Amino acid sequence: MEKIFQALSSTVRRKILAYLSGGSMTAGEIAERFEISKPSLSKHLNILENAELVRREKKGQFIHYSLVQENLANTLNGFIQEVCPVSRPLKKESAEKASQRKA
Amino acid sequence: MEKIFQALSSTVRRKILAYLSGGSMTAGEIAERFEISKPSLSKHLNILENAELVRREKKGQFIHYSLVQENLANTLNGFIQEVCPVSRPLKKESAEKASQRKA
DNA sequence: TAGGTAATTAGTCAATTAGCTAATTATAGG
DNA sequence: CCTATAATTAGCTAATTGACTAATTACCTA
């Protein structure tokens, strides 16, 4: 939980997860999409793996990274339930704002 | 979005949100529940307010803090949708793990 | 208006983070 | 076996974070 929220606090790492939601990619393919050095990206990938948000699989010379969807979804949904429990519905005012924004 | 995930990366701040899910509290009431100094807590509250996850309302000598549920729920749900889209359902293996854990 | 309480702001400091370059590891292929 | 490629680890630095104490602001009440 701590590790997961920590991992999600970086824009780079959230973007990596978004890329991986389209299918697994090698470290190099991910690196191409960012303007930071490969070692820096490697660190980000380490943090994501350590939080069990991605899985790493070595295939010959390449390392393929893929998303671990259920950890992400379970943690975030769990937190939403804890802080915004369904048993305690939104107040009218809040509900209105929520439907206005929808983003 | 950036501010919200940044705000959520601290255990202290996530706990504050959890407390506030039970109803609004003054800064002092929140401070009682932690072992850190009031100024440190004040900073955390500032970060949460800046991320628009809590609202501050002054009543005489006291400042009442309350949760802004819809911002939290909208942002987290939006991110889950982006990274774990329903149109791309979980693979069998992943779905099994997810149901095993449930935490 | 003086004293007390609630809370924040200011300023300092140690620890962490995020980036970089250089070096290392591991694999593929001539 | 040697070279090239993919990626990581090691080591460094600047910037940020999170804690503290001291000082300030704001409000209440005698």
Automatic annotation (TrEMBL), chains A, B:
Residue ranges of every copy of the HTH arsR-type domain listed in the record: 1-87
Recorded superkingdom: Bacteria
InterPro entries found in the cross-reference section: ArsR-like_HTH (IPR011991), HTH_ArsR_DNA-bd_dom (IPR001845), HTH_MetalResp_TranReg (IPR051081), WH-like_DNA-bd_sf (IPR036388), WH_DNA-bd_sf (IPR036390)
A Pfam family reported for this protein in Swiss-Prot or TrEMBL: HTH_20
A single GO molecular function term of this UniProt record: DNA-binding transcription factor activity
PROSITE patterns assigned: HTH_ARSR_2
Keyword annotations from UniProtKB, A to Z: DNA-binding, Transcription, Transcription regulation
PANTHER family in UniProt: TRANSCRIPTIONAL REGULATOR, ARSR FAMILY, TRANSCRIPTIONAL REPRESSOR SDPR
Protein known as: Metalloregulator ArsR/SmtB family transcription factor
UniProt source species: Sneathiella chungangensis
